[in-house]
Amino acid sequence: MSDSLERASEMEAPLQQLKQKIEAEPVPSRRGGFTGGLSLLLVLILAVAIGAGAYWLWPQWQQLQQQTITLQQNQQRLVEQGRQQQDSSTQLLQQLQSDQQQWQTQLERSQQQKQQQLLTQNEAQIQALRQLVQERDSAPPRHWVLAEVEYLLRLAAQKVWLEQDFSTARALLSSADEKLAQLAEPSLVLVRQAIAADTEQLGRITVPDVSKAYVQLQQLQKQAMNLPLKLQVTADTKNSAPSSELKNWRETLAFHWHNTWQGLLNPRSAVPEDYFDLTHEQQLMLRIALQQQLQLAQLALMQRQQPLYVAALQQTSDKLQRYFNADDVGVQQFSSVLTELAEVEASLPSVKVLTSLAQLKQYQQQLAGESL
């Protein structure tokens, strides 16, 4: 009996030790368990919020990246188009310069041919006059003077119609009138009246100084490369985008979000000032276009084409007012010179037919009839 009790007490000894250990350990409080659950719940809510934000912002971020790539491609395309236009403008300028040189060469050649033709005609007339003098050795002095007056009147007509030299033509008419006055014959009154009418007509003609206008246009072409352009005022720094560092992702996202909604809700129409922020190639193209209009005005001036000359100067003035800074002193002087050049008459003055030579021939016919 005692042995069984001892065995029972030995088997219960480990159970008693385990109970003592359990009772010795501190029982966790309910407050600590509640705090742990709340922290877990906050972590789950934060994870859900981050996932929802990433799901909502990721398409907009991709769209923003796509827009950036599109803008870069458009910028490259515009630069390529600007280079092509610059090349075409340079080729056109070279072609205009080549045409101008050819035209000047042809003009000089035609003037030389006209001078040579006039010289040949003058020599032929002098030879005919010498022959006439030889045939009329026994003629009265009046015939000598009339032959010389006829030569002077014919030469004056050639100066008017071939060379547009009105001052020399007036001098020739005056010399012819003086020779007729030496004869002191009343029958020559009609001839002298015709000479006086032709002289008065040529005296009313004003010939513009085309060479001066040509030189002024040449100087304006050189000044066009240094005129200041109108440039768009840059935006304020307060509206500039923040730095692209990773730590500023919140500011960058807020900036692009604000600009996107501002562009959608506050649209405005384009104004001319929006197109003045030009690249270097576009500025060079504007200056070359201004030079081309001035060269066109030069060609029209030398060819005596008044409508084309006025149109070229008007287009030059329009480009100057639209794209260049009107407050600059150089631009103002450039505009004033254009105004002066617009008053130059490029077309040839209209001249009526000289009647003195026809009147002299009529008198000579009457004189020949009387002698018969």
Distance between the termini: 201 Å
Mean pLDDT: 77
Q: Strand tally, please? A: 0
Range of strand content: under 5%
Q: List the uncertain runs.
A: 232-238, 267-275
- SSE string: HHHHHHHHHHH
Structural class by helix and strand composition = mainly alpha
Largest sheet: none
Q: Give the proportion of residues in helices.
A: over 70%
Q: Could you say which overall geometry the principal axes of the C-alpha atoms support?
A: rod-shaped
Global Rg: 50 Å
The total count of helices amounts to 11
Written description of the protein model:
By secondary structure, the chain is mainly α. Among the domains are: 113-205 and 354-371, no CATH class; 208-230 and 278-348. Helices cover 77% and strands 0% of the residues. It has helices at residues 2-24, 30-135, 141-161, 166-183, 189-203, 210-223, 249-265, 280-302, 306-323, 329-342, 356-371. The longest helix has 106 residues, at 30-135. The radius of gyration is 50 Å and the shape is rod-shaped. Residues 232-238 and 267-275 have low confidence and may be disordered.
In a nutshell, what does this entry contain?
This protein has 372 residues and is mainly alpha-helical. Helices cover 77% and strands 0% of the residues. The chain is built from eleven helices and no strands.
How are the elements arranged and paired?
Blueprint: H1 2-24, H2 30-135, H3 141-161, H4 166-183, H5 189-203, H6 210-223, H7 249-265, H8 280-302, H9 306-323, H10 329-342, H11 356-371
